[in-house]
Design goal:
alpha/beta; FAD/NAD(P)-binding domain; 2 domains; five-stranded parallel β-sheet; 11 helices; 25% strand; globular
Length: 400
């Protein structure tokens, strides 16, 4: 969730012009457009950023564009844990989606998609309304897998949506000024690892002795190289994070964690960073999906049975090869989705998406520390965090 091929992002931003009202020269724009066709972007996430930044191009060609998103802002997930730790404020890590869309002549609907009828070409919305489309692209993200919840859930937070991390930060700060607190983080992947490290940074400001426990499931960073695991473990433990492995969370009742082994743990705050899954409405609509329920797309990022439907990010399953649920692929999909949506509207050839090779990963483990790895090269400590911070801030500046 929180690691990206940042160098590729920078290269991509250099090769495409993201500035408003600046036309990207592209041969498909020299052809005629069919007026009033309706392009709908379901979701305002990472895979749609290039398309959203160039909505004026669609509008100038006579197309209508509607973007549906749950918030007027899109939060950059790569900086979410840093916001939780207090290193960034919300304005530092978010983009004004509504403003960007409306200034270019598009329509923004603050809503969420709950269903799709591919035959009628219609989306159902949480508000009860519907939106028809001629061409549709999904970037609706993924949702956290939840355990069984019971009793008071006021102090249980999920890492998605990112705004929840800021709410968790304020609540933890408030209570930790009055007493010692225990924070349990559930999930041993990159998200849980980064969240636990940044909670430790947040609680360093408290004058009370507090406790952070990372319940890492089967193992901490199980699918990563040993060097990454060891460096991350060492930095977390030096920051005061207790790591527990081999326990599977079954349920939470009134902030008491119940594990399959019979162990119970009490916490003042619980942050869930467990596995993710796409929305169920793809399967419910009868669309072809992958094993996790994500919309199955071909090498054009297109639904083969309904070619007017495209998608990117965590909500899709790439037919050619399985892709990790990481932001790097959403970023790499950006220019292909942008080109193919415009080309499909004009009846022109589509491009293939190449997932690319190895990606750069950087973890922000709080307290100004991080782990950076690219192929065989790895560094950890303050320098790794500084590299991540510099790239993240540049990403925000460029898109804003």
């Amino acid at each position: 969730m929180f690691y990206y091929d940042y160098l590729l992002e920078l290269q991509m931003r250099c090769s495409l012009n993201f500035r408003k009202r600046r036309v990207i020269k592209n041969p498909i724009l020299l052809r005629g457009a069919v007026v009033n066709k309706h392009l709908v972007l379901a979701g305002a996430g990472h895979a749609h950023m290039v398309t959203m930044a160039n909505i004026h191009m669609f509008c100038e060609l006579g197309y209508r564009v509607t973007v549906i998103g749950p918030s007027d802002y899109h939060y950059y997930s790569g900086m979410g844990p840093g916001m939780l730790g207090g290193g960034y404020e919300p304005d530092d890590i978010r983009f004004a989606v509504r403003q960007t869309i409306e200034e270019q002549g598009g329509v923004f609907l603050r809503d969420s998609v709950t269903g799709v009828d591919p035959v009628a070409r219609e989306l159902r919305l949480e508000s009860g309304g519907t939106v028809s489309y001629d061409v549709l692209s999904f970037n609706t993200g993924s949702h956290i897998n939840l355990p069984i919840l019971g009793g008071n859930t006021d102090r249980i937070y999920t890492v998605k949506p990112i705004e929840r991390l800021y709410q968790a930060r304020k609540e933890i700060e408030t209570l930790s000024r009055k007493q010692s607190v225990t924070v349990a983080v559930i999930g041993g992947g990159p998200a849980g690892t980064e969240v636990a490290g940044n909670v430790s940074e947040l609680l360093r400001k408290s004058s009370y002795r507090s406790k952070i426990v990372l319940f890492a499931g089967r193992a901490l960073l199980a699918r990563f190289p040993e060097a990454v695991k060891n460096s991350s473990r060492n930095l977390l433990e030096k920051s005061g994070v207790r790591i527990k492995e081999g326990e599977h969370l079954r349920s939470i009742q009134d902030n008491c964690l119940h594990f399959d082994s019979g162990i119970e743990e009490q916490a003042d705050f619980i942050i869930l960073a467990t596995g993710v899954h796409p929305s169920s409405f793809f399967r419910e609509a009868g669309l072809r999906t992958g094993p996790d329920g994500g919309l199955l797309v071909n090498c054009k990022l297109q639904c083969s049975e309904y070619p007017e439907i495209f998608g990117g990010g965590d909500c899709i399953c790439f037919e050619d090869q399985p892709l990790d649920k990481v932001g790097v692929y959403a970023v790499r999909e950006n220019p292909v989705l942008f080109h193919n949506l415009l080309a499909f509207l004009q009846g022109k050839p589509l491009q293939n998406f190449d997932p690319g090779g190895d990606y750069l990963l950087i973890f922000n483990l709080g307290n100004g520390l991080g782990v950076l790895r690219k192929k065989w090269f790895q560094i950890s400590g303050k320098l790794a965090f500084r590299v991540k911070d510099w790239i993240d801030r540049k990403f925000i500046r460029d898109f804003k």
